[in-house]
Specification:
Blueprint: E1 8-12, H1 17-28, E2 32-37, H2 40-50, E3 55-59, H3 65-79, E4 84-87, H4 102-130, E5 133-137, H5 150-170, E6 176-182, H6 204-216, E7 225-228
Parallel strand pairs: 1-2, 1-4, 2-3, 4-5, 5-6, 6-7
Helix pairs in contact: 1-6, 3-4, 4-5
Length: 234
């Protein structure tokens, strides 16, 4: 088992849902955590909920590469290094392809796919220097297509392919890359408000624990692509 105490992690889109669940799990394991998002008030609220200590907040938009470069610089300035990157920021809007707006298409591709590229590219030097770990949070929509999901499917299929190719590019630098593909998760995704009826779903804390398990895993082992589903269907 790898010791992850005092490692430094950067999680995009971590003010709620899966990203926040991952942040909680890492903080509980004494990892120094930086979280980013576009809403400073949401970031401050998340920082307070995480306990403030060793939690850095960064107002940043993954669609902007310069924002990601500045985020990495801020993390290194604060903590001295960057070991772990979790590309979690994502959006979802669903409509038939003939009704899908250009704005919604671009928002999903730019955030879910290009945003992950910006994040990894900006952090790649640090990850190579520190033999780090990159994890993207994709979706089962990255392998299972569905009606009204053309843009979302395209972004998540792309993210899965991107992460697997990045894994081949970076493995000889002792950088690990994994994509996690969750099914139904209790989250605030697409405007959903978590409630009692979500108990059957995967919880954000479950994904958080999965990330911790990956980081602690024997360094000779690399689960490069993980599909995860609820045990039951409601």
């Amino acid at each position: 088992m790898q010791n992850i105490e005092n490692k430094v992690a950067y999680i995009t889109g971590a003010t709620k849902g899966i990203g926040f669940g991952i942040a909680q799990a890492l903080v509980q394991n004494r990892v120094k955590v930086a979280i980013s998002g576009r809403d400073i008030q949401a970031l401050e609220k998340a920082q307070q909920a995480l306990g403030n200590q060793n939690v850095l907040i960064i107002e940043s938009d993954v669609r902007n590469y310069d924002d990601q470069l500045k985020a990495v610089e801020k993390i290194v300035s604060q903590f001295g290094k960057l070991d772990i990157v979790i590309a979690n920021a994502g959006v979802g809007k669903f409509a038939p392809i003939d009704e899908m707006s250009l704005e919604d298409w671009n928002a999903m591709i730019d955030t879910n796919l290009t945003g992950a590229f910006h994040t990894l590219k900006a952090a790649s030097k640090q990850l190579k220097e520190n033999k780090g770990y990159y994890i993207s949070i994709a979706s089962l929509a990255g392998t299972n297509f569905f009606a009204k999901g053309a843009a979302y499917n395209a972004s998540k299929f792309g993210l899965v392919g991107f992460t697997q190719a990045a894994m081949l590019d970076l493995r000889d630098y002792d950088v690990k890359c994994t994509t996690i593909m969750p099914g139904s998760v209790t989250s605030n995704f697409n405007g959903h408000i978590p409630n009692e009826e979500d108990k059957w779903k995967i919880q954000p804390s479950d994904i958080g624990q999965m990330v911790v398990d990956l980081l602690k895993m024997n360094p000779n082992v690399l689960p490069s692509k993980i599909e995860v589903r609820p045990t039951k269907t409601k």
